[in-house]
Amino acid sequence: MNSRRNFIKTLSVAGAASVLPINLSLSNTMASQKLIHQVYFWLHKESDLKEFMTDAAPMLGRCKDVAQFIMGTPAPTEKREVVDHSFHVSCTLFFDSLEAQAAYQVDPLHLEFIKKYSHMWKTVKVYDIAI
User: Fold this and answer.
1) Greater pLDDT, 77 or 17
2) Edge-to-edge strand order for the sheet containing 35-43?
3) Spatial distance between the Cα atoms of 123 and 114, rounded to a whole number of angstroms
4) Helix, strand, or coil here: 40?
5) Among 35, 54, 110, 121, fewest CB within 10 Å belongs to which?
6) What is the DSSP letter of 63?
7) What pTM was computed for the model?
8) Can you tell me the distance from the alpha carbon of 108 to that of 88, in angstroms, rounded to the nearest whole number?
9) Strand, coil or helix: what is 94?
10) Are 59 and 109 spatial neighbours (Cβ–Cβ below 8 Å)?
11) Which residues contact 83 (CB under 8 A, 6 or more apart)?
């Protein structure tokens, strides 16, 4: 009976110890988690589209923590119930870590973009994707 208890204790300790490296591993993964930050803009006026794409949105790509920046408009794909063509501009930003994305949120250029151009959009949707 005593050896059975010792066996169960040993299994419990081994099980707990095996979980510890996983938790440490997860925290390290989160620190270096790459991220795609997708931002969709619906503008107040269609006539603002050129200025927004020429002057406003490119500011986001110049923020120092952005690894890659892509800007576009809805593709002329077929209309289907699952496809949303209603937005005017989409910006896709790639970050090398969660910390880089957090730094981008307070980057002076990002804050200037919001202050200077937020009057142009009526709606913004953001989708953050871990990769």
Assistant:
1) 77
2) 68-72, 89-95, 35-43, 121-130
3) 13
4) strand
5) 54
6) S
7) 0.76
8) 25
9) strand
10) yes
11) 77
Could you tell me if 89 and 69 are in contact, meaning their C-beta atoms sit under 8 angstroms apart? no
CA distances from 123 to 43, 62, 74, 81, 101 (A): 7, 22, 16, 21, 21
Percent of the chain with pLDDT over 90: 76
Chain-centre distance for alpha carbon 23: 23
- Listed in sequence order, the residues at least 6 apart from 67 whose beta carbon sits closer than 8 Å to its beta carbon are 94, 95, 96, 100
pLDDT computed for residue 26 by the predictor: 47
Structure confidence at residue 32 (pLDDT): 78
CB–CB of 58/8 below 8 Å?
Answer: no
Both tokens of 53, joined, read 């794409």
Distance, CA of 44 to CA of 30 (rounded, Å)? 37
